[in-house]
């Protein structure tokens, strides 16, 4: 019975949404996998060289941000399967929120050239959040 319910859920999600999720999520996964790895494991000097915003916050804040980005990248890659959508959805929102913090830090340090990147990344992550929303069941009796 549970398998049938899941099949019905899959049938309610239009194919364009499934394709859009992969087309948006996978490039984001590549980016956040790369930068997340560096935020997690690169030296602070190297992070500062490349203007990583996490080089300007305490290391105990910056390193977990990198780990969260790696987790998000993994979930975004897994979003080819709709079973991963709930996790990908909320990790995308969490990482999108870090783009606001990143923008504020770049503004504070007069690195305005990075703001466009933050906007594009944030919008992409918010698109994934929106596209992976649960489907609403439509019944014939108005419920």
From the alpha carbons, calculate the radius of gyration and give it in angstroms. 18 Å
* Span of the ends, CA to CA: 22 Å
Q: Strand portion, in percent? A: under 5%
What is the number of beta strands? 0
Uncertain segments are 1-5
Number of helices in the DSSP assignment: 6
Structural class, judged by helices and strands?
Answer: mainly alpha
Residue share in helix: over 70%
What's the number of domains? 1
Shape by Cα distribution? elongated
Please summarize the sheet with the most strands: none
Summarize model confidence as the mean pLDDT: 89
- What string, H for helix and E for strand, traces the elements in order? HHHHHH
Furnish the topology, listing elements before pairings.
Elements: H1 2-12, H2 15-41, H3 44-49, H4 59-78, H5 85-108, H6 115-131
Helix pairs in contact: 2-4, 2-6, 4-5, 5-6
Question: What report would you give on this structure?
Answer:
This protein has 143 residues and is mostly helical. It has one domain. It has six helices and no strands. Helix 2 packs antiparallel against helix 4, helix 2 packs across helix 6 and helix 5 runs antiparallel to helix 6. The longest helix is centred in the N-terminal third of the chain and has 27 residues. It is elongated. The relative contact order is 0.14. The N terminus is likely disordered.
Keywords:
disordered N terminus, mainly alpha, 143 residues, 0% strand, 6 helices, elongated
Short description:
By secondary structure, this protein is an all-alpha fold. The chain is built from six helices and no strands.
């Amino acid at each position: 019975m549970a398998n049938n319910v899941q099949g019905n859920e899959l049938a309610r999600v239009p194919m364009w949404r499934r394709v859009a999720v992969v087309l948006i999520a996978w490039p984001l996964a590549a980016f956040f996998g790369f930068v997340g790895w560096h935020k997690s494991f690169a030296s602070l000097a190297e992070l500062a060289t490349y203007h990583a915003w996490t080089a300007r916050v305490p290391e105990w804040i910056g390193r977990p941000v990198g780990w969260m980005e790696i987790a998000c990248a993994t979930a975004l890659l897994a979003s080819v399967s709709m079973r991963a959508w709930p996790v990908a959805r909320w990790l995308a929102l969490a990482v999108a929120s870090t783009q606001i913090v990143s923008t504020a830090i770049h503004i504070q340090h007069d690195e305005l050239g990075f703001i466009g990147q933050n906007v594009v990344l944030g919008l992409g992550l918010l698109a994934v959040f929106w596209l992976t929303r649960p489907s609403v069941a439509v019944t014939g009796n108005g419920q």
